[in-house]
Amino acid sequence: MQTTSPIVEKNKKEKTASKRKRQIFDAAIHLFLEKGVANTSMRELAVAVNMTTGGLYHYVKSKEEIVRMVTRNAIYAHESVKALRKSLGDISPNEALRACTKFWLTLEKTAQEQTIFLDRERVHMGADMQQVYSESVRSLIHFFESLLDDGVKAGEFEVDNVFLTAFNIYMSRIQFATKWWLLQDLFTAEEYATQQTNAVMKQILVDRNKIS
Amino acid sequence: MQTTSPIVEKNKKEKTASKRKRQIFDAAIHLFLEKGVANTSMRELAVAVNMTTGGLYHYVKSKEEIVRMVTRNAIYAHESVKALRKSLGDISPNEALRACTKFWLTLEKTAQEQTIFLDRERVHMGADMQQVYSESVRSLIHFFESLLDDGVKAGEFEVDNVFLTAFNIYMSRIQFATKWWLLQDLFTAEEYATQQTNAVMKQILVDRNKIS
DNA sequence: GTCTATATAAGGATAGAC
DNA sequence: GTCTATCCTTATATAGAC
Fold first, then answer.
1. What Å value separates CA A167 and C1' C18?
2. Of A128, B18, B24, B37, whose CB has the highest number of CB atoms within 10 Å?
3. Contact B198/A at CB under 8 A
């Protein structure tokens, strides 16, 4: 006769527990996006995951904790762009910038929703999270600046204002996420990314034949 | 002996009443911006104008009414750009686009705050106001499209994607307003407007010598 | 026209049964 | 681990005194 060991038991519970937490997390992002953080109640969130508030509080400490979770997670999108650059290794500044810009502009839908969340709900974050968020934004813009600098040094780019150009690349994505309601009838995410990327490259490339 | 006529009396009251309402309106914009609509209570708003909630409700019917007032007012900023174009009369497409872009990018601070409000608090508007807002945005973008078209026809501009360029002009301002916390140490509003305007013109002008 | 007091509703969070 | 019941706080909005 076989009995399940206590450790396996514990792991099992932890697995379903983290599954539940994940479920709550996903539902929270969805509701926060649709109605805003302040307009989403814990009761609603509980209903969305087929629980009652009492049950919900078994998994999360407070509403604020959820906001923190979502915020932290959203910031990973920023890091993934830098990770891509590293994985690409030794390529030309032209190709590097194009690849990273395109990647940043086509991050999948979940990440897109998180971008909106960050951008819009800054006012509902605690002071500490606002700080973390700001740093993350600055860091990503700085990353694009360095890509631009590389190209300038290599003689491939000609850029009037490096910061502003980097800022605009960063913002192209935010624009798409926050103005989705306006753009969805006109572009797919893919088309938007392609065209904005081209617009950027056209602005800075010394040799315009390299656009393709 | 002179007595004030009833009509003068009435006008006087209406004047102070509308002054009060204006005061409430200004305070509301300020608070909504800083803390978001949902996080701003009528009590707070009352305190901000040195009243109690009871007094406040003498002037406004509901919180929703205030949001509607602010929304409607914010939309005037869009109209003022079109009005400028008309007032300029018969000038070259190049000059017209430059003037309107610059104007749109430098609208004074109050209008700037209202832009943030609209962009961020869309989720707190009623369905009807969301509709009005969307229309107004589309209309302004369309206005920039027509300016671009004029230039293309006149052979002054060369534009790959007219809508996207118009959209980016529109968004340059929203960017500045919503990312003010990021940009304020780097640009004055004036500098930002100048540089973004130049970036746009550089992208589309056939004859680049016409930039400055 | 402004205040105090209060009705009424909703939200976050907890205690304790099962 | 989930539910019911409930506490406490805060919010919108109104009634009526002054």
1. 57
2. B37
3. yes
CATH code for residues A72-206: 1.10.357.10
Q: Nearest nt to A56, CA vs C1'?
A: D2
Of B119, B134, B186, the CB nearest to A163: B186
Lowest mean pLDDT among A114-128, A173-187, B69-83: A114-128
**Domain residue spans of chain A:** 1-60, 72-206
> With contact defined as beta carbons under 8 Å apart, do B30 and B65 qualify?
no
User: Any residues with CB less than 8 A from the CB of B121 and at least 6 apart, and which?
Assistant: B32, B36, B37, B67
| Interface contact A124-B36, CB threshold 8 A | yes
Residue B183 with chain A: CB contacts under 8 Å: 167
What local confidence, expressed as pLDDT, does residue A12 receive?
54
CATH hierarchy code of domain A1-60: 1.10.10.60
Report the mean per-residue pLDDT for chain A: 90
Q: Which CATH number fits domain B74-205: 1.20.1440.170, 1.10.357.10, 3.40.50.720, 3.20.20.80?
A: 1.10.357.10
Cβ pair B124:A39 closer than 8 A: yes
Min Cα separation A35/chain B (Å): 6
- Which residues are CB-neighbours of A36 under 8 A, at least 6 positions away? A120, A121, A124, B36, B38, B123, B124
pLDDT tens-digit series, residues B76-123: 889 999 999 999 999 999 999 999 999 999 998 888 888 888 888 888
